User: Fold this.
Amino acid sequence: MAAPTSLPNSRTLLVLSSLAHFVNDGTTFFVPVLAALMVPLRGFSPLEVTVFFVLYYVSASLLGLFIGWWSDRHGRAVSLMGLGVGLLGAGLFTFFLVLAGSLPGPFEYPVTLLAGVLTGFATSFYHPLGASLLQRSFEPSERGMALGINGAMGSLGRALFPFLFFLVTLALVTTDSILLFVAVALVSAVVIAWGTRSVTARASDGRGPSTGRARDATTGGIVRLTVVAFVRSVALQGVAVWIPTYLTVARNVPASGQLGLAVTTMYVGGILGQPLFGLAADRTDRRLLIGGSSAGAALATLGYLFSTGWTADLLLFTIGFFTFSAFPLLMTLSADYVPGGSSSLANALVFGLGAGGGGVVGPLVVGAMASGGYRFLATGLEVMAGLGLVAAVCVVFLPAGGRGRPRSLFG
Assistant:
């Protein structure tokens, strides 16, 4: 499908934002794999891993609100997007210092927490900014497909980063291979910065700096969608974040290429799921798609926990297919609920506070259930699957999109 051209720079923006999404999501979902490695390599306890996840996701969720507000007030979404990608490289390098064993023992865990906060902050840039750029650059009838294509690149990053890490690690017999991903992030940041030279300041953001108020982002539809995104993410991210650790401690998958391949199986599902859900979002009720994806991920999780062999592999793929559909579905619907001048902050509310906040609570709940030992981890995943079914029902509270002028809760 040819890229729509609502703005002269829409093709360039789609390419640059897709590159940023690739690195951002590749790093975001690579971090739980790094946390899983810390268990056998550094002896981190369930409580230490849980605290790490909480700090990581809290920094990504809350700081994203500031990034969205700043972009709406001052513009420069593309430049900020490139800065976020560069910071991802800095965060990964901090992880490298721990994995390389170059730090004294007492400093390993504090530096790991620092790496989590820095990387979490870096991941807060992309989703509100990238979604806002695409929402403004493409017509509503083609917005879902553009977001889906872009989201598929994020899923490709999720799939490739863990697998390539373990593949290179096996070849070099060293975890120093993480430096490859540091280089990818830094080079990508330079490419994005260079690419913005061909995009005018006004077209790059779809507008110039805005005087839009923060209250314009808090429409009734945005608030409800944020709540639904939160419940959905508690359930689905509570599963996705702990899957690498579950594979390591419950299914005895070694911390090698086999673990990377297993995790990649789940993430590959999103490569197919995102464009398909994005295409469907342009043609059908997006609320039903959000509900269906939540139920699908929940049922696939339950099936996976009670299966083995190729059936388990297929269900792991299915978990990824449904779980990682959030970007095109939530972002196409959020565009219907808010004025364009406040879209970055609205996106940060839905994807940062909603989906990101749920990404904090879900892993925390599962971690609390597993605090008595990793043998309780499967029970935590079962509870999350049940909550996923609840999330599917919550979509009945969402208003229909695209009907009339969005109305703020604050008048």
